[in-house]
Amino acid sequence: MELLKQRIQEEGKVLNDQVLKVDSFLNHQVDPLLMMEIGEAFRERFKHEGITKIVTLESSGISPSVTAGLAMGVKVIFARKRKSLTLTDGLATSKVYSFTKEEWSEISLSSEFLSPDDRVLIIDDFLANGQAGLGLIDIVEQTGAQVAGIGIVIEKGFQSGREILQSKGVRVESLARVQSLQNGRVTFYKETGVHA
Amino acid sequence: MELLKQRIQEEGKVLNDQVLKVDSFLNHQVDPLLMMEIGEAFRERFKHEGITKIVTLESSGISPSVTAGLAMGVKVIFARKRKSLTLTDGLATSKVYSFTKEEWSEISLSSEFLSPDDRVLIIDDFLANGQAGLGLIDIVEQTGAQVAGIGIVIEKGFQSGREILQSKGVRVESLARVQSLQNGRVTFYKETGVHA
């Protein structure tokens, strides 16, 4: 997605070889118009998958998921990172390790909102080591629903997330695939055929 | 906002006299089409305020803020509930007590995204005791920006939040004002003139 890559080049901050900060349009400040373009891009890529629900993880996954939900006309469920006091019955839960925060957290989702008839698109802001994606696949499958694909806004292609998620038999689509953050510069993979 | 009140009546769960659970369209599962109507309603109520930015609090405030941002053509900043490892410089912070969770948390916002020229609309999903709103006003004002108003999706009008926020001189607009949750039923205030 060219517009997204441009914004990453213009506004992304490369903190080191591993960390790309995009707080000005995705992770802290959100540009709703860019998010709408992102939502449309997800709709285009998954239009033949019969998606009935979107599942994401709070908080940074919510914005692109809501715009994808608008574009596709389906509801969005955001998994929570810890149990809240008003969310207790019928929870699907999984443990997820964050390499960025160096901690385990429990993610959970009310299974009442998914059924075996659902074909779920999982959306997340970043793909790095694939741990959040694995946890999301786990809780969706606990409800009996089917994971139809994973849509990622920015993939750090030099980390192992894609292989890990694809090894689960899940289709992975990224709107921007970063090849390297070396020398303070963002380079992307060529896109030819990636989303054929 | 009649459509919102209908959804609250149809899908809201009254857990007790104090707690209304709307997990099926706002706080866990999100209905993007309803969120877009909510975004348009905020645009209509604040159209003469010259809003340049929206500020909200993760996570449940993000969906209605992104659709309001779409409707109004302005960017959205979601304040974080604790410091993240990649968010360190130039933070405005405030402490907020949650009566629901019975705990203090620190909320923070990168001051680089607001300037004294900004007129900020604060949006949140619920208004109860006004503590989150006070914290959001605090961090916005720390950046020198001006709070032009507070937009609330659901106000629990039998709690003190509105008085607390109005005592700061801030205009408060709620799309649904709950008068009572007694006897397991949701009743709303009459809307006449409320958003004149």
Written description of the protein model:
The structure is a homodimer of 196-residue chains. With 196 residues, the first copy, chain A, is of the alpha/beta class. Chain A has a single domain (35-180), classed as 3-Layer(aba) Sandwich (Rossmann fold). Chain A is built from 5 helices and 11 strands. Chain A has helices at residues 2-11, 32-45, 62-72, 131-142, 161-166, and strands at 13-14, 20-21, 29-30, 53-57, 75-79, 91-98, 103-110, 119-127, 146-156, 172-180, 187-188. Chain A has a 6-stranded mixed beta sheet, with helices on both faces. In chain A, strands 1-2 form a two-stranded antiparallel ribbon. The first copy, chain A, has a two-stranded antiparallel sheet with strand order 6-7. In chain A, strand 8, helix 4 and strand 9 (146-156) form a beta-alpha-beta unit. The longest helix of chain A is centred in the N-terminal third of the chain and has 14 residues, at 32-45. The first copy, chain A, is globular and about 45 Å long. At the A-B interface, strand 3, helix 2, helix 3 and strand 5 of A face strand 3, helix 2, helix 3 and strand 5 of B. Chains A, B: One of its GO terms (biological process) is purine ribonucleoside salvage. Chains A, B: Homodimer. Chains A, B: Belongs to the purine/pyrimidine phosphoribosyltransferase family. Xpt subfamily. Chains A, B: Converts the preformed base xanthine, a product of nucleic acid breakdown, to xanthosine 5'-monophosphate (XMP), so it can be reused for RNA or DNA synthesis. Chains A, B: Xanthine binds at residues 20, 27, 156.
